[in-house]
Amino acid sequence: MSRTVTVKPFDYVIFGATGDLTMRKLLPGFYYRMLAGQVPEEARIIGTARSPLTRDAYQGRALEALKKFIKKEDFDDAKIQRFLKLVHYVSLDGSKPESDWNSLRALIPQDKADRVRVFYFATAPNLYGAIAKNLHDKKLAVGDARVVLEKPIGIDLASANDINDSVGQYFKEENIFRIDHYLGKETVQGVIALRFSNPMFEAVWSSDYIESVQITAAETVGVEGRAAYYDESGALRDMIQNHLLQVLALIGMEKPASMAADDVRDAKVAVLQGLKPFDSRTVASHAVRGQYVAGKMGSENVPGYLEELGKESQTETYVALCAEIDSPRWKNVPFFIRTAKRLEQKVSEVVITFKPTESRLFPTEAKRNVLAIRVQPDEGISWTFNAKNPVHNDFSLGQATMRVDFAQTFQTRYPDAYERLMLDAVRGDPILFIRRDEVEAAWTWLAPLMKAWADKATPMAHYKAGSWGPDEARDMLKRHHAQWHEDMSL
Q1: CB-count exposure of residue 328 (10 Å: 0-12, 13-18, 19+)
Q2: Where is each Glucose-6-phosphate dehydrogenase NAD-binding domain found (predicted)?
């Protein structure tokens, strides 16, 4: 995965260019890729939004974003100015055909056949179809033009199909890049390398040796300025349907036929389609939803979700699920998926617990081996295993942990996930993007659970801000003879 090869000259048009995502992630990501030598001087980054800004005014906003979101040691005036020369702006409402499309067309003329053209939709998903239609009608979505769709792709299967159908009228499936920034994280990509390039792990990656798998995305923040969006979405739609199910698919998939994009995505979709569906029994026993109440984050008192929201709500800020993959490889192995706001620690990780060794050789019992893959922060791997305790004269066992810090090991800055994904769309490489059937499989699996929660078939659990979540989630793991990673006595 080279980060030094310059891509072809491109025109990258961002709809929603004044929004938080563009300022926080996309523009800084392009800047870092320019520093790495990947962005050619001929490239154009064209922001579009309804705000009536001049190019100079928009470049000023871009400069402020770079000052805020890139590291101080990476801020170089000459390089910043070189980057800003790539940045253009057009005041445009992409959902309206009567908007100023001529100004955009003037920046990406038709006679530049050698240039890659990418349209990034960083807007509300309900606008995707209208923007795609206008790009087609205005003769801008021509040739091999690509479109990048930000999540969420719908709020359920029906709305996801509506979005995919509306965009699919004007862009071929191979030119639709549905972005999931978790797949852009190097540690998530590294799951494939860990599994299939190391004989030790490949040999034991099954129910013969693995007792359980945990996938966690925990946040310490509350809903902050996203309260309106979050209350419509909730933790299940915001994190599990896309990010964490993609991680589960990489952990659970069979070895793909090759590293070609469709071979990898075929392997992933087989996992998603193989998830055992929820029914009335498993909704109660295999799923927990919760909301945080007032508590303490460190020394700071913080309000509960309903206090932050200012109204009553049945939207969950915590979800823990027990998923099962219906395949010989994973027979009877629970996959525990968890995400939440206002937990004690910010961490995204995969924890694989191996079955204990049955041996009478040692005077003390061998504990379970645990492999922890840290997605963020402090990307790396830890392996906890049994070893002879050197303090004792007999063969008593203790546990040792080996830790690998990837940034230190490879002597590199760990790039933000968006950096690679944005330029993968320029390259036309879809391996880290989501295919339509993956979206459909994820929504199909979650549909019975969402209906049960909408019907209030199960009660809402509560947990204090600054804790590790509700007791009901610990009880769910106890029923499977398991513990959350933070509760393990390693």
Answers
A1: exposed
A2: 13-189
pTM, two decimals, is: 0.92
> Per-residue pLDDT tens for 383-415?
999 888 888 878 888 888 999 888 788 777 777
As beta bridge partners, residue 321 has 287, 337
Whether 243 is catalytic is yes
168's CB contacts (< 8 A; 6+ apart) are 176, 436
Find out whether 276 is annotated in a ligand binding site.
no
* Sheet containing strand 44-49, strands side by side: 87-91, 44-49, 10-15, 116-121, 146-149, 176-178
**CA-wise closest residue to 415 among 391, 397, 432, 437:** 432
* Residue 311 assigned to a binding site: no
Q: Is 268 annotated for ligand binding?
A: no
d(CA 249, CA 191): 10
Residue 238 marked as a ligand binder: yes
150 is in an annotated binding site: no
Asked whether the CA dihedral 383, 384, 389, 391 is positive or negative, the reply is positive
Q: How far is CA 151 from CA 71, 120, 368, 390, in A?
A: 27, 12, 38, 52
Measured distance CA(243)–CA(240) in Å, rounded: 6
Residue 346 annotated as binding site: yes
Place of tokens 């909730």: 234
Q: Among candidates 490, 487, 480, 438, which has minimal Cα distance to 288?
A: 480
- Residue 80, C-beta contacts closer than 8 angstroms, at least 6 positions apart: 31, 63, 66
The tens digit of pLDDT for each residue in 307-358 reads 998 899 999 999 999 999 999 999 999 999 999 999 999 999 999 999 988 7
Closest of 127, 126, 167, 133 to residue 147, by C-alpha: 167
- Closest C-alpha to 120, from 178, 196, 164: 178
Q: Please say whether the beta carbons of 320 and 287 come within 8 A.
A: yes
Task: Please tell me which residue in 88, 136, 243, 286 is annotated as part of the active site.
Answer: 243
Say which residue the tokens 């989501």 belong to.
434
Radius of gyration of the chain (CA): 24
Q: Is 231 helix (H, G, I), strand (E, B) or coil?
A: helix
The structural domains of the chain, ordered by start, are 10-178 (3.40.50.720), 185-413+436-487 (3.30.360.10)
User: Residue 74 and residue 416: Cα distance in Å, rounded?
Assistant: 14
Categorize the per-residue pLDDT at 457 as very low, low, confident or very high, splitting at 50, 70 and 90: confident
Q: How far apart are CA 481 and CA 470, in angstroms?
A: 18
Q: Which tokens hold the place of 316?
A: 């969950």
